[in-house]
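User: Please predict structures.

Assistant: First:
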Amino acid sequence: MKKIILFGDSLFNGFRNHHNTTVITAGLNERLNNFAQVDNLSKSGATTVEGLDYLAQLPPDFDLIVIEYGTNDATVWGITPENYAKNLQKMIDFCKNRKIIIVGPWKANPNSETAANFIPENHKKIHKLAKTIAQKNNLLFIDLWKLTDGEKDVDKLYQADGLHLTDYGNQKLLNLITPVIKKTLLA
């Protein structure tokens, strides 16, 4: 059975009501059933700076890592886009002999006060850098901003905090990432 590591922040932790949940891990395990086992090593609130520190926690026997950092990097307390790019590349280099998927940063609900916690220019740069770095390394890129495509009411994706996903949003996230994970494992 293939072993998948989720490596990111609160989005992969299915953060609900100020607590981590297993909604993403369990949802992927259910969708991949006997094909792969998903382990989540994500840390809520983490930036790529913390992600670099957590690399030592990766087990030696995984087949695929899904790296999802950048949201917290783009906040007013985050880091520069240039440092984000360096940190993401270091993560990729550390895992270079494995299959890797890069997931771009998520964004705050534009209708919420949470959006003020982000530096819009940095957020756009980090989003673009994630995609560019994935392409440069011949890796698949998952664009989380596509979760809002076609949504007339984006509020239904977000919890009251304006950042984390509702049950509906988490299902859309699973629908977005599952096919890419399957494609990567079969490649």
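Second:
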Amino acid sequence: MDSVDNVYVADEDNDRIQKFTSTGVFVSTFGSAGSGDWQFASPTGVAVDSTGRVLVADSANHRVRAFSP
């Protein structure tokens, strides 16, 4: 969860991250299939650090990506 209680979900099948409000309302999505900027290959985990950055475990690309809000 971020500072306003939004929830981020790793959508492994569609190679993207989805964002929802704390009540489950869809807000946005980011990412697409690939290995470039803002692209993922089987993202399997997502977290938000204390500064608000969204951290994504991009499994098939063997990396962890950090995105600023």
